[in-house]
Amino acid sequence: MKKIIMAIACGVLAVGIGIAAVGCGARGDINVYNRESGSGTRDAFLELLGIEEENLNTGVAQLNSTSAVIQGVAGDEKAIGYASLGSVDDTVKALSVDGVAPTEETVADGSYKVSRPFELMYDETALAENDLLAEFIEYLKSSDAQDVIAEEGYVSVVEDATAYAAPAEALTVTEITATGSTSVGPLMTKLAEDFASLVKTANNQDVSVRVSGGGSGQGIKDANEGNSDIGMASKEVTDGTDITNEDVTIYQLCADGIAVIVNTANPATNITLENLTKVYTDSSLNWIDIGVEFPVEE
User: Fold this and answer.
1) What is the pLDDT of residues 203-219, one digit of tens each?
2) How far apart are CA 209 and CA 21, in angstroms?
3) 51 and which of 11, 38, 46, 209 could share a cystine (Cβ 3.0–4.6 Å)?
């Protein structure tokens, strides 16, 4: 009778928080993956969960890129982490949060709560002298760029965009740089490739937008100090606080969901915001404590 009662209690816990359970009694430490300090994804994630830095779980593994988190979770059956929705692939599993799956549609309509903007920063006064930068910014507002954004799994925030008209004459500048967020970087690379192709078709000129990482903090720093033509951040950037250079303009490139990811062998399908917050603040939690049980290995 005791075993039956325990099984029922276990099932009620799992159903009550909307997380799948298999078997009863199997326990497993939660291996928590986090991004490094200075990451815009980290800043946005912790802010959305209401977690202060001093309350963060001290047992988390801190990784320095989106790809590192995905690879880490893919190779760790008991792991949980987070990554840009547009970067998530089939090597990991994205959980629903409070019953809402992370999709372009749920990010766009606001029902998926763990989402943030991708933002770019550039010196407005440089546009008059740097024709390549001016053309690239113009391209980013076009329907061509919005198509790339959608194809890569992100949400466009530009209304009534029109097709980009590449210059018929050669540009005086042939290379610009974009630095910062490793979440924004892959999308910017795709946009840069499409832009360069359109310019090549229009005037047979080879141009390049050279994209590199360093994190959102680096992108903000580079924009303020003029170390790169474009800074990239995967969080909301505040004028006057983050941006202290009065010549720098902030441009929202798109919106992105932050996917909560687990290993494909994990039976979980959903997690509540409450339990997600606990995972990132309480180092003593096991998977069973939030209703997730792994099959007992014989």
Assistant:
1) 999 999 999 999 999 99
2) 48
3) 46
- Scan for tokens 């049980």, then name that residue: 293
Tokens 């951040």 map to which residue? Answer: 233
Q: Which residues of 50-80 are buried (b: 16+ CB within 10 A; e: fewer)?
A: ebeeeebbeebeebbbbbbbbebbbebebbb
Q: Identify whether the C-beta of residue 210 lies closer than 8 Å to the C-beta of residue 177.
A: yes
Q: Quick check: pTM over 0.85?
A: no
Distance between CA 49 and CA 271 in Å, rounded?
13
Whole-Å CA distances, 290 to 49, 83, 161, 268, 270: 17, 21, 45, 10, 11
* Interatomic CA distance for residues 34 and 56, integer angstroms: 10
Domains defined along the chain, listed by start: 2-115+265-290 (3.40.190.10), 116-257 (3.40.190)
**What does the block give as tokens for 7?**
């099984």
Length reported for the chain: 298
263 and 91 Cβ atoms separated by less than 8 Å: no
Helix 143-151 / helix 131-140 crossing angle, nearest 10 deg: 60
Q: What is the CA radius of gyration of the chain?
A: 22
Do 227 and 217 contact (CB within 8 A), yes or no? no
pLDDT digits (tens, 9 = 90+) for 192-206: 999 999 999 999 999
